[in-house]
C-alpha cells in the first residue's frame, strides 16, 4: 500500500468488487470516527484541567470565590488578561464588588502584597 495511490483489491466479479469497496470505505470511516472521538475526549480533558488550574489560581486571591473566578473568565479571559485589566474594567464587566475588584487589581500589581507571607 502506497500513500497517495489507490489500493489494488483483486475481485472475481463486479458484485464482489463493489462489496469489497463498501467494506473498505466503511472500515476507513469507522477508524476516522474513532480517531476523532478520541481526539475530542483528549481536548475536553485538557480544557477541564486548564479550567481547574485557572480556578485554583484565581480563587487563591483573597476574597475571590469560585463564582467570581467564573465571572472573570467569562468576561475578561485568561489570567494574563485579568492581571492586565483595570479595577474599573472588572467593575463594568462583572458583578464583582468594588472591594474584590480592588483586591484583584492589587494582587497582580503590588509585589509587597502578593509576596507577603500572610495575605489578608
Automatic annotation (TrEMBL):
Domain DisA/LigA helix-hairpin-helix motif, first and last residues per copy: 60-112
Entry-linked InterPro entries: DisA/LigA_HHH, PTD, RuvA_2-like
This protein's UniProt keywords: DNA damage, DNA repair
Ranges in coiled-coil conformation: none
Entry-linked Gene3D superfamilies: 5' to 3' exonuclease, C-terminal subdomain (1.10.150.20)
Pfam family, one: HHH_2
GO BP terms in the entry: DNA repair; resolution of meiotic recombination intermediates
Official protein name in the record: DisA/LigA helix-hairpin-helix motif domain-containing protein
Native source species: Mikania micrantha
